[in-house]
Amino acid sequence: MKKLNMQLSIVIPLYNEDESLTELHTWIKKVMDEHKFTYEIIFVDDGSKDNSWQIIENLKANFTEVRGIKFQRNYGKSAGLNRGFAEASGDVIITMDADLQDSPEEIPELYKMITEENYDLVSGWKKKRFDPLSKTIPTKLYNGVTRMMSGIQLNDMNCGLKAYRKAVIKSVEVYGEMHRYIPVLAKQAGFAKIGEKVVQHQERKYGVTKFGLERFINGPLDLLSVMFITKFGKRPMHIFGYIGTAIFLLGFLLTSYVIGQKAYYIYKLKESAPLVTDNPLFYLALVAMMIGTQLFLAGFLGELIARSSSDRNTYLIEKEI
Questions:
Q1: Crossing angle, helix 107-115 and helix 21-35, to 10 degrees?
Q2: Sign of the C-alpha dihedral, residues 111, 113, 118, 120?
């Protein structure tokens, strides 16, 4: 049963982190008891192959604040967060990694920023990192591009240590690998007060990172997806229609030019005009008109799908009297 009027829900997605879980729980409990928080810890086991779930079961047997969810297989961090968000009942939700690189000592200040300074979301910033250059340099580039495209001025968009107002996590859906862009999703949902706090970054004590080089490819692709979905998900004609129309008009103008050139040869110069098919512009014009038509139709079909979607009229209500 979920506790009522709980101050904090701490959501921890994990995969093969059995060596750190007991120590992490002890550390969190120490901080929570010192500040007299009412809280729950939700461990989401993303299909671990080690003894992580057995340790979670043991913790649950001894500590009432512990809750556990285990996936049948590995679905990824976004799935773990999304499920943890669905189960969280605290007024403020904290997310953190299970590898002991995020410090629970930061939680009280994060909680204060949400409850007293009225932030919707506060992201940690690992200003001093204990990671190799092969990770830190691409991370800086990725954060720079994300800031430029989203307009959200966060230095560490992908930091696992974050705090959320409850309304935020109940209003966004995290899937695929969109956990990197929760601040972007939150902003598009209307939660614009997003802050940042410099947090302590610990060296990894046990195991190895679970993220490979593919994150540097998936990250930018996911950013393009989330920017497209948030801006045009419910009005696809606004992008496909505009681009398709522009390309079609370009093809039409090229076609008019080619036909006009032939007419000029025939009626003005009284010469034998070259064949239209001998002009390369003719083929460029055909391709442009075909692509333009296809894009326009794609936008039209997208509009039909968006209008038939079950959530097309789902809006977030802040207050009601």
A1: 50
A2: negative
The per-residue pLDDT for range 140-163, each reduced to its tens digit, is 777 777 787 777 888 888 888 999
pLDDT (mean) for 281-308: 84
Give the residue carrying structure tokens 């920023």: 113
Q: Which tens digits make up the pLDDT trace of 37-48?
A: 999 999 999 999
- What whole-number distance in Å separates Cα of residue 70 and Cα of residue 57? 10
Q: Is the dihedral of CA 86, 97, 156, 140 positive or negative?
A: negative
Please name which of 32, 23, 35, 93 lies closest in space to residue 64, comparing C-alpha atoms.
32
| Alpha-carbon distances, residue 167 vs 74, 111, 119, 180, 251 (angstroms) | 28, 15, 12, 19, 49
260 and 305 Cβ atoms separated by less than 8 Å? no
Band of residue 216 on the pLDDT scale cut at 50, 70, 90? low
C-alpha span between 223 and 151 (Å, rounded): 13
Q: Is 186 left (phi over 0), alpha (psi -120 to 50) or beta?
A: alpha
Over residues 91-144, the pLDDT tens digits come to: 999 999 998 889 999 999 999 999 999 999 999 988 877 666 666 677 777 777
Residue 200: exposure state from Cβ atoms within 10 A (0-12, 13-18, ≥19) = middle
Nearest to 204 by CA among 146, 300, 130: 130
Q: Which residue has the higher pLDDT, 190 or 304?
A: 190
Q: Where are the alpha helices (DSSP H) in the chain?
A: 21-35, 52-62, 77-87, 107-115, 133-150, 166-169, 182-188, 215-232, 237-267, 280-308
Q: What is the pTM of this model?
A: 0.72
In sequence order, which residues have a C-beta less than 8 Å from that of residue 162 and are 6 or more positions away? 94, 95, 110, 121, 122, 123, 124, 182
CA pair distance 204, 131, nearest whole angstrom: 9
Closest CA to 183 of 143, 140, 139: 143
User: Is 208:133 a contact under the CB 8 Å cutoff?
Assistant: no
